[in-house]
What does this fold into?
Amino acid sequence: MQPRFIAHLDMDAFYASVELLRYPQLRGKPVVIGGRRHAAPGAAIPALREYSGRGVITTATYEARAFGLHSGMGLMQAAKLAPNALLLPADFDEYRRYSRMFKDAVRALAPQVEDRGIDEIYIDLTELVRSGAAGGTLDPWTSARDVADAIQRAVHDATGLTCSIGVTPNKLLSKLASELQKPGGLTVLREADVPARVWPLPARKLNGIGPKAAARLETLGIRTLGDLARADPLSLIERFGRSYGAWLHQAAHGRDERPVITWSEPKSLSRETTFEDDLHPVRDREQLSRIFTSLCARVADDLQRKGYVGRTIGLKLRYDNFKTLTRDRTLDEPTADAGAIRRAAGECLKRVPLDRRIRLLGVRVGMLRRVIAPQLFIE
DNA sequence: TCTGGGGTCCTAGGACCC
DNA sequence: TCTGGGGTCCTAGGACCC
It folds into this structure.
């Protein structure tokens, strides 16, 4: 395969940065996004110490991260570390608007874009670099850096927001590289840089090595990606299975052939909610039933708006002890009807033990099939 | 006052069919 | 009576990611 030039672009503290455009007076202060809507519009922005309830940080500004706050952290725990940090509820409609703006700005320069959620993308720069560098003697990596630099400026011009970009021969390394100089970084890594720049990093930094795998690796004395690269591939396969073990070995050497995928069909749509207070299956039966029905109605609405029907209806339930279970049922014919989804999900609910308080309820529809043309639906 | 909400992919076992 | 494969579909759970 010809060498490729792949970029990973990651918006810096995206949700928080969008809020700072709206509230410029908060710039330089520790701010976190998360929790449910809590203050009346127009009221003063509350500090973390004033918050009570469930919820986690979705994004923290760099000033807030200095206190040890990070996304995923419970808000009550965060309040202990930084009681004076300011707290704003998430405004997803606004973030989606900015997401479209930055992605459009990138696509105008480099069309081969893979969506990886609201605030990050992969970009295949190979064609641009080849056509741009073909005329001169310019080193292609210098050319790739120039394109990435232009993308960074275009994103800032379009949105007023900064991003970090990694440019390398593949998605795995680019994802890693974009994190090396946040915020506002542009990091170029070539294959030859892997031993010096990648191997010293903790194994956990690799996209695909999560907390569980990292802990198992640690027990084998594997802490860095260099340790992993030196590990015997056969023993990795023995311990982690044929597929994941082989992947671990390849990944530690910075090898990844996955293409940049510019469009893919969704596989499932779901809605779930964590209750303000755990609900009792008997005493709070009516409230649970209302919430359950409304979740079904919301998934049905999502399906209809986006133009899909689905055949597998799934229920998700989390008890007060955080134990989570799922049940699903595959119908003969796909549906997007709220009533049909509710009936199937109701059958699933009959198959779970309801002997303790419930924390979360969710409804999922899978095995999707498209019913209208993609350009007709509105995001 | 621990632990949101929306996804993807993988594994493993059982049913069922040939 | 016991014993085969292989293949597909369905279900449940778990790891991981943003």
About this structure: Residues 285-306 of chain A form the longest helix (22 residues). The first strand of chain A starts at residue 6 and ends at 11. Residues 34-36, 52-58, 72-74, 76-77, 90, 117, 241, 243-244, 266-274, 322, 360, 362, 364 of chain A lie near DNA strand B (CB under 10 Å from a C1'). The mean pLDDT of chain A is 94.
